[in-house]
Design brief:
This protein has 191 residues and is α/β, with parallel strands linked by helices. Helix content is 45%, strand content 13%.
Length: 191
């Protein structure tokens, strides 16, 4: 991930709906249907749900996800069926408020880390390796397993302090000195 694509993005002040990103691809491992069911408690709220479905060889699955999303949310569900250029995608991520990644395995870090850097609220399953990895690095992340216990206000809220903590943690993780430490540790073990 290149932070240069993210550093100059301006944090927009917005009214309008809460923008929610679900998943990172058309891969069924995103567990789209489970996410959509969890979010269905908020159908009457001012939300827009964005669902990346742009790369898949299983167009039947893509169609099923789109059908379910539109059935539950109508025009609040926005399927993304075309790839975006890198800078365009960075701007898109900057316009999200929340991301829900419900994979049962580590996946989507190329989306998760930029979202954390940009100060977005990110939900992951607490029972996958990404959750403790990011927590240990100092990130404040939220558990999809407890989402259905939340009211809308707690689902969308993240403090400015938590957003800033996440930005700093991602900067540390992607710094040249951190990479140098990783390599030094690796080579030091094989002397």
């Amino acid at each position: 991930m290149n932070l240069e694509n993210l550093k100059n993005l301006i944090k927009e002040t917005k009214g309008g709906p809460i923008n929610i990103l679900i998943g990172n691809s058309a891969d069924p491992a995103n567990n789209h249907f489970e996410i959509l069911e969890m979010l269905s408690a908020f159908t009457n709220e001012s939300i827009s749900i964005y669902c990346p479905l742009s790369y898949s060889s299983d167009q039947d699955y893509v169609g099923l996800v789109i059908h379910k999303g539109q059935e539950l949310f109508g025009d609040k569900f926005i399927p993304l069926t075309q790839m975006m250029a890198t800078q365009e995608y960075a701007k898109f991520l900057n316009n999200m408020d929340i991301a829900v990644m419900n994979h049962y395995r580590q996946q989507g870090l190329g989306n998760i880390m930029p979202l954390l850097y940009l100060g977005k609220k990110v939900y992951l399953r607490s029972d996958i390796s990404s959750f403790p990895f990011l927590s240990k690095a100092g990130c404040v992340i939220f558990d999809t397993c407890s989402m259905n216990k939340s009211n809308f206000a707690s689902f969308i809220s993240i403090t400015d302090d938590d957003s800033e903590t996440n930005k700093k943690a991602i900067e540390r993780m992607l710094s040249p000195s951190h990479y140098a430490d990783l390599w030094n540790n690796l080579f030091g073990k094989h002397k």
